[in-house]
Amino acid sequence: DTGVSQDPRHKITKRGQNVTFRCDPISEHNRLYWYRQTLGQGPEFLTYFQNEAQLEKSRLLSDRFSAERPKGSFSTLEIQRTEQGDSAMYLCASSSYIGAQYFGPGTRLLVL
Amino acid sequence: GQQVMQIPQYQHVQEGEDFTTYCNSSTTLSNIQWYKQRPGGHPVFLIQLVKSGEVKKQKRLTFQFGEAKKNSSLHITATQTTDVGTYFCAGQAGTALIFGKGTTLSVSS
């Protein structure tokens, strides 16, 4: 296993369009996390799955954001009606316990 | 809400000099983790500290967790150009990690 993978690596979209990102965690990890990172900031927690259950969501997470992990393996993050303020790096991480998290390379989103 | 603050925001050193970054939380932490992010890269896990007063070493890196479990530090001895990057501390708040803004280290040879 080569680690956490994310697709696409880059996405440019127009304001108002919907986008979907995919994350494939390390295969034996049952915990999966989504973060958002903007320039000069640390990653900001968005949501957390344990297996297929979404157990925690940030209060900062807009209703336009939705995440799924249908079979407890890969996860998708969808942003509806994108806004320019959504431009950021979206990072996925996985872990096998509450502790070390292993991050993917991220999806860089630019909303025009 | 819980906040994690890091200082300094930037640090430039000459190769061979030491470097320290400090992390403070507004609340007591169950554990603290440190990550390194190279320019254009993603955060990479370095270490987790759990016990009050804990000190861990990884080669030239020394990590400390404060007695009150609200602060931590990372010290690099004799920096090398390969140490360049942004170092983040992250406090565990339930399942979420709350990251500081990071300290960006640059090293000139």
Summarize the structure in words.
The complex is a heterodimer of chains A (112) and B (109). Chain A contains no helices and 11 strands. Chain A has 112 residues and is mainly β. In chain A, strands 2, 4, 5, 6, 9, 10 and 11 form a 7-stranded mixed beta sheet that branches. A 4-stranded antiparallel beta sheet of chain A has the order 1-3-8-7, with no helix packed on it. Chain A starts with a strand and ends with a strand. The model of chain A has no long low-confidence stretch (mean pLDDT 94). Chain B is mostly beta strands and 109 residues long. Chain B is 0% helix and 57% strand. Chain B has strands at residues 4-7, 10-14, 19-25, 32-37, 44-49, 55-58, 61-65, 71-76, 85-93, 96-99, 103-108. In chain B, the strands form 2 sheets. In chain B, strands 2, 4, 5, 9, 10 and 11 form a 6-stranded mixed beta sheet that branches. At the A-B interface, β5 and β10 of A face β5, β9 and β10 of B.
Layout of helices and strands:
The complex is a heterodimer of chains A (112) and B (109).
Chain A: E1 5-7, E2 10-13, E3 19-24, E4 31-37, E5 44-50, E6 53-57, E7 65-68, E8 75-79, E9 88-95, E10 102-103, E11 107-111
Chain B: E1 4-7, E2 10-14, E3 19-25, E4 32-37, E5 44-49, E6 55-58, E7 61-65, E8 71-76, E9 85-93, E10 96-99, E11 103-108
Parallel strand pairs in B: 2-11
Antiparallel strand pairs in B: 1-3, 3-8, 4-5, 4-9, 6-7, 7-8, 9-10, 9-11
Strand fraction band of chain B?
A: over 45%
Largest sheet of chain B: 6 strands, mixed
Strand count of chain A: 11
Which two protein chains have the largest interface (Cβ within 8 Å of the partner's Cβ), and how many residues from each? A-B, 24 and 22 residues
Compute the separation of the termini of chain A in Å: 36 Å
Mean pLDDT of chain A: 94
The coarse overall form of chain B would be globular
**pLDDT averaged over residues of chain B:** 95
Structural class of chain A: mainly beta
Fraction in helix of chain A: under 10%
Helix segment count of chain B? 0
Low confidence ranges of chain B: none
pLDDT < 50 runs, ≥5 residues of chain A: none
Strand content of chain A: over 45%
The 3D shape of chain A can be described as globular
Radius of gyration of chain A: 13 Å
Major sheet of chain A: size, sense and barrel closure?
A: 7 strands, mixed
